[in-house]
Amino acid sequence: MHAPLLTPVEARLIDCWQRDFPLVAEPWPEVAAAAGTSPAAARAAVANLIETGLAARLGAVVRPNTAGASTLAALVCAPAEVSDLGPLVSAEPGVNHNYEREHARLPLWFVVAGADEPAVAATLERIGTTTGRPVLALPLEREYRIDLGFALGAASLAAAGPHRAGSQPPAAPVATATVSADDRALLAAIEDGLPLVERPYRTVAERLGLDETAVLARLTAMVAGGAIKRFGIIVRHRPLGWRANAMVVFDAPADAIDDLAGLFLDEPAVTLLYRRRPAPPLWPYRLYAMIHGRDRGAVEGVIGRLVARAGRPLGHEILFSSRCFKQTGARFSRLPEPVL
């Protein structure tokens, strides 16, 4: 599949505004100036990116386990069963990502979110009951690099690659902002994206019966505290040309994971890097790296460099994504309720 042709304005908007979208009453003059266009043209370009499927929305990416609870999970099944079982998993409201990956015993991987950990556990139990298959829960223990942008650098994606886009993000902070029930209502109001109007935060405030300054203050606090880890244009990497995407898992002693992650952080092609609780004996892996590339050869080259950086034999498995059943942002308007 050929990479899509973007207008120069669309490419600049993606490069500049995947994070740090202005939290001011009238954001579009600043957004437009960075893209060399007018506010109205900038809004129209963002709308076109969303309408054509190159972007999902303009809004917030919320750090896991701040406005609720979540976990990565995998279904133990045969690859031949995925076509039947994938839609059953996606039907759960708490599932926001659901991918088929190339693996003989764990071919279906999904993310479950809920109001709290018992609600997540209840969803996992329902999935196990509905599918009749065991479910492995693999909760996050530490994030090293997560949710970086995809920089283009040109109207055509021919010479572009995934790396940090927009301003350089700091090392991932520990989320300190208190996410209240009112904050969750605000996140629910923008879960499908900001309205593409001159004063988007006023429109959101009117929906919630709030003042515009209060909405801006709460969003600013959630960004500063780390509950919102990125605020901007949320692109869809596959339509933008990164179609060879692999999750690579590494088996190393628990006390060596942090040092190993430090070595891997020097590889810019690693777009996500985090530590998860293992599920032995089937799944002993603790360190996960996500690599997005244009072709399998390029991704495999990155994996080879990672293994070389370790400086010693390192057990690992490569799970290329082969099909997407579901991909949405976190749905705060319908998170499974707390289990009392």
Automatic annotation (TrEMBL):
InterPro entries: AsnC_trans_reg2 (IPR040523), HTH-Siroheme_Decarb (IPR050684), NirdL-like_HTH (IPR053953). Residues 69-144, 240-326 form the Siroheme decarboxylase AsnC-like ligand binding domain. Keywords: Lyase. Transmembrane segments: none annotated. Gene3D superfamilies: 3.30.70.3460. Pathway: Porphyrin-containing compound metabolism. Residues 183-228 form the Siroheme decarboxylase NirL-like HTH domain. Pfam families: AsnC_trans_reg2 (PF17805), NirdL-like_HTH (PF22451). Its EC number is 4.1.1.111. This is siroheme decarboxylase. It comes from Prosthecodimorpha hirschii. The lineage of its organism: Bacteria, Pseudomonadati, Pseudomonadota, Alphaproteobacteria, Hyphomicrobiales.
